[in-house]
Amino acid sequence: MAERLFEALPADAHEVAAADCTPSAPVLAVQNLSAGYNGKPVLQNVSFDVYAGQRVGIIGPNGAGKSTLFKALVGLLPHQGEISIQGAPCRQSHTMIGYVPQYEAIDWKFPVTVWDVVMMGRARQIGYVLLPRRRDREAVRQALERVGMWALRKRQIGELSGGQRRRVFIARALAQRANVLLLDEPFTGVDAQAEADIYEVLDVLRDEGIAVLLATHNLVQAATHFDRLLLMNGGRMLAFGDPQAVYTPQLLAETFGDRIALWRDGDGYVMVADKPCHDHDAHGDHHAPAHPQPVPEAVRE
Known about the structure:
This protein is an alpha/beta fold. It has helices spanning about 65-75, 90-95, 115-120, 125, 135-145, 160-175, 190-205, 220-225, 245, 250-255, and strands at about 30-35, 40-50, 55-60, 80-85, 95-100, 180-185, 210-215, 230-235, 235-240, 260-265, 270-275, 295-300.
């Protein structure tokens, strides 16, 4: 089964201008960003602007460069190009971005409490030899309250559900007092209720003017829950703009190849995936099977 994504999608467009209500100065400006591993280029000349309160979905198949983009933005990889948060220079901007890595990259057996994990988000402000100050404890309290996890602050992190763990790591990023938040596939392995809870948190952050970049494999949710989409493949940015503009047959074919079929059905488009689109970057810690079995799957609400 497949359902319509939009009542009417416009013609092919690789970029859409920001909405008229968008502030004139971006909170995150990325220009000609390139990065790689061990001297091998992966990310190539990526440029885009994100404004306060915007939610941007990062879309692409295995090896597209989504995680590499996030790691370059927070300074975990050497890179070329410019990254600026609210006009700050590149080196300073790395410290002004909150980052929530992929779920599988975290050791959930490590003996720390929810409070401890969120306090780690204050490491740059505290330093390595000092104790947390009152303002650090207050930042942690506020972050936990914003994600609805204050009551579980003394719980060991491994005792939480998948959705609760995601919210704790969002709180850790918020404790940095960052204006830009990166979430690398936060919905992997969580149920529908946990997913809805995370979106409620993201709605609160939008109201507070915090910009969120989120890597996701759910194409329908990307169309309905995000202000902008960035399509990637092979380390290149193929499109950046409004979901209705970037979800076109040409751009989806460039992004996913034969994985996506898209055709017009009355006033809208029908989209069907004939192979799973959820996997990790080629240089991440986890990989999809070498020869995945095609699983017919309709992309639908």
